[in-house]
Amino acid sequence: MKKTVRVRFAPSPTGALHIGGVRTALYNFLFARKHGGKMLLRIEDTDSTRYVPGAEQYITESLHWLGIEIDEGICFEAPEGKGPLGPYRQTLRRDIYRKYVKQLINSGNAYYAFDTPEELEAKRKEIPNFQYDASTRDSMNNSLTLSAEAVQQKISNGEKYVVRFKVIPNEEIRVQDIIRGEVVFNSSIMDDKVLYKSADDLPTYHLAHLVDDHLMEITHVIRGEEWLPSVPLHVMLYRAFGWESPQFAHLPLLLKPEGNGKLSKRDGDRLGFPVFPLEFHNPIDNTVSSGYREQGYFPEAIINFLALLGWHPSDEQEIFSKEELIQAFSLERVSKSGAKFDYEKIRWFNHHYLNEKSDEELYQLFRPILETKVEKISLTKEQILQAIALTKSRCTFVADLWEQTDFFFVPPTEYDAKSLKKHWKEGSHQMMVELLEILQQSTWESDVLNQTVMDWIAQKSYPMGQVMNSFRIALVGSARGPHIWEITALLGKEQTLARLQKALKDIAQ
Ligand code: GLU
Question: Do 103 and 156 sit in the same domain of this protein?
């Protein structure tokens, strides 16, 4: 029988969740959903020196906002974790790990090491490129060189120790990676990794994640490429425990927009884009990192963008809903090489998803912004909806709606010098006086207005561009905005005439 797919996202709460981590979570999620499996979230907090308060909540809130749903473990709705195989926070699993550390020692796969930092330093000075491994372990202060009594004595004296994995040298380790194919390592390059530290009574990442993956019945480990060099150790550990190893898929790096090297926060600062989903206030170093949410990006845009950063569909399709991604996603179509972080593209997606929204939805999002801009909103909801419909195709963010529609709410108090220079020329004043009269007499229907004004322009042989742009400047304050008759329709007769009259008064002839 085929096993139910179970995958996990296993972040360490060391700060804001990097956008590369978000992509890892997303690929795990898509894979789980595609195969009708489960998506877990486990918090890997064994390194107390790197712990940042608030980081865990930040992670769960980010995933929740993005719609990356967690079936088991720690999540936004269940901060203490849900599911039968918990606890899902590693510092709550000490008892479990202790048992497995013992097991490795008893089976001869691991050993106690008492070397002090000073002793290790001395060795490093003595032996060039010192590595704690088969070539050196017999000359060190550990349970392989000490008698069983001496070891017991040291432990009962409370001497600090670590437990190291006993790597068998010169063995070829072959690993099948779903994305990379077969990867071969020689065990001689590996040192006897520390698996456990008595000082904090906690295992290190290597042991902790592996025990957890086993007990939590993880079938596929999908994670960043930076973990690939650790895989031979993990394979040896699975073997030492006699456990079946999950399948591996190591995702390509996210690269700088220029393509040279790993994407970092500094690239974002340098080029002006966030590398985190939400804004984060780090209480340790008091830094604030900007987030996509606060900058006005939609979760759908980020998901669509990230999905295509390393994975590609079988055709040219670019716009994918979450459901479509689940259908189309496969690890086989994830590339081996790094993916350039094309931050302009995410704006393009945002523009797309903004225009997918109904005017009503945009109204709900725009209204709070509007309230900060004008004291009294002079337009009805109907009119605001129209203003949105007229201008949304020019917007990337909801906040852009204000730049595009401000003149509907606030009549111009001054007129853009550049626009005036270009369009308000000799004769403009007289043309506007005549136009005012025509408008006063016309019925207020765009078609009628258009026809009447066009006839008048033709009859007088006025330059069309000058007339229409001067009129626009009078209504808007500059030469921008949607179609002129759409503006007049929304402003209404009274407001249009008032603005034209004011411009005639205020703009020098
Ligand atoms: N805690 C590790 C990290 O934050 C998890 C790596 C893994 O998925 O095995 O990168």
Answer: yes
Cα–Cα distance, 322 to 303 (Å, whole number): 8
What is the whole-number distance in angstroms between the Cα of residue 239 and the centre of ligand 1? 21
Tokens of 430: 């007289």
* Alpha carbons 180 and 203: distance in angstroms, whole number: 29
Helix axes 299-307, 55-66, angle to 10 degrees: 90
pLDDT tens-digit profile of 292-346?
A: 999 999 999 999 999 999 999 999 999 999 999 999 999 999 999 999 999 999 9
What's the Cα-to-Cα distance from 201 to each of 29, 143, 208, 241, 266, rounded to whole Å? 32, 18, 12, 21, 36
Residue 89 token pair: 């926070």
Q: What integer pLDDT is reported at residue 12 of this predicted model?
A: 98
The alpha carbon of 138 and the centre of ligand 1 are apart by a number of angstroms equal to 32
Grouping H, G, I as helix, E, B as strand and the rest as coil, residue 230 is helix
Same structural domain for residues 39 and 183?
no
Q: How many domains does the chain have?
A: 4
Q: Which residues line ligand 1 (CB under 6 A)?
A: 10-12, 44, 205, 209, 223, 227
* The one catalytic residue among 82, 265, 345, 422: 265
Structural domain range at position 63 = 1-79+252-356
| Distance from C-alpha of 6 to C-alpha of 29, rounded to nearest angstrom | 10
Nearest of 6, 223, 239 to residue 109 by alpha carbon: 239
Tokens (6 digits) for 130? 């010192």
- Ligand 1 center–CA 157 separation, angstroms: 34
What is the pLDDT of the chain when averaged over all its residues? Answer: 97
| pLDDT of the residue at 119 | 96
CA dist., res. 18 & res. 341, Å (int): 13
Residue 455 confidence class, pLDDT cut points 50, 70, 90: very high
Does some domain include residue 14?
yes
Query: Does the pLDDT at position 103 exceed 90?
Result: yes
Is 265 catalytic? The answer is yes
Q: Which residue has the tokens 């999908």?
A: 222
Q: Assign 504 a pLDDT band (cuts: 50, 70, 90).
A: very high
| Main-chain dihedrals φ then ψ at residue 294, nearest 5 degrees | -65, -25
Ligand 1, closest atom to CA 209? 9
Element housing 125 (H / E): helix 117-126
